[in-house]
């Protein structure tokens, strides 16, 4: 999605989890992924605990919040300032990652990001990292599952390598069951050292991206080609040669294909006078619709998820691509504009 950088707001993704759950490991893993320009906000008293080479190579500007936990600051001024700085268009970031301190409250943090008036950003999801070994001793201690599960758009059950092999499935199932009780639809993946597929979290460069735009990315991509350290997400995509039906598009955004964690696209719709372009993004239940300066000559829709039912997702995307959109669909346009208004 080459012009997404210029047209869309920068997604802000929060990484939360109890002390020592593996947030920094997950952050480092994401930063190691070539092909994305990332900004990082940590509220760890200014200590950016990532490899210095990675920071200088891939992160354009790191903003650190001092003064403790972001969600405890009176006016969240620290977070807003950091997001303001990192979302400046000249940085052309693909995503901003906020690593919360181990005591941050995910529900509050998610509200702070969602309600932030800072810069050109949009909420990009909240990844809750769970320590599979310590979880029932530290976080999930009461009969009711913790409220923090409800704020997550993705749950990563980390440190599964430290569970005795004979107990692994049982413990992971128990965590899954507790999370599901609070948040039935949230995707849950397991990981070692936070190694999840970065495609779940942000857009990464495709092999066909121009070499001079992302030289470092290309280099690392080539180096990493045969080095698979995580399970890959599945994806389905479709090219949109013509305008789409806004009603069908919104139906898709509100009820994504089974197993789709992210859905994104650039589309053209027919208005009463002219065609308009929109950038759409779904993460979990977050829907974001932004106008594009120009309708894209050719659009696309992409669905991504670890447990994506790929053939079913392909059928849903193909249905949007092939449905006739000859006449302006007034009711659909109204629904699309409502999301656009909610997204600003
Ligand atoms: N064996 C194993 N160790 C892990 C895994 N993930 C993280 N660790 C280790 O656990 C420790 C804590 O991991 P971090 O990534 O620093 O955790 P954190 O959530 O950022 O910690 P705080 O910032 O202190 O809250 C580090 O020593 C990691 O190397 C994992 O999946 N397996």
Task: Name some characteristics of this structure.
alpha/beta; Rossmann fold; 7-stranded parallel sheet; 5-stranded antiparallel sheet; 33% helix; disordered N terminus; binds guanosine-5'-triphosphate; CobW family GTP-binding protein
Characterization of this structure:
This protein is of the alpha/beta class and 344 residues long. It has 2 domains: 4-200, Rossmann fold; 234-343, CobW-like, C-terminal domain (Hypothetical Protein Yjia, Chain: A,domain 2), CATH 3.30.1220. The chain contains 12 helices and 12 strands. It has helices at 4-7, 23-32, 52-58, 77-86, 106-114, 135-138, 148-151, 165-182, 215-224, 246-254, 310-322, 330-343, and strands at 10-17, 38-42, 59-64, 95-99, 121-131, 154-158, 188-190, 234-240, 262-270, 275-283, 286-292, 299-305. The strands form 2 sheets. The protein has a 7-stranded parallel β-sheet with strand order 3-2-4-1-5-6-7, with helices on both faces. Strands 8-12-9-10-11 form a 5-stranded antiparallel β-sheet, covered by helices on one side. β9 (262-270) and β10 (275-283) form a beta hairpin. α10 packs across α12 (330-343). Residues 1-6, 44-60, 71-76 and 207-228 have low confidence and may be disordered. The structure holds guanosine-5'-triphosphate (GTP).
Taking Cα atoms only, what radius of gyration do you get, to the nearest Å? 20 Å
Figure out the total of helices: 12
Question: How do the strands line up in the largest sheet?
Answer: 3-2-4-1-5-6-7
> In CATH, what is the homologous superfamily of the largest domain?
P-loop containing nucleotide triphosphate hydrolases
Q: Biggest sheet: strands, sense, closure?
A: 7 strands, parallel
The CATH architecture of the largest domain: 3-Layer(aba) Sandwich
Strand portion: 15-25%
The helix content is 25-40%
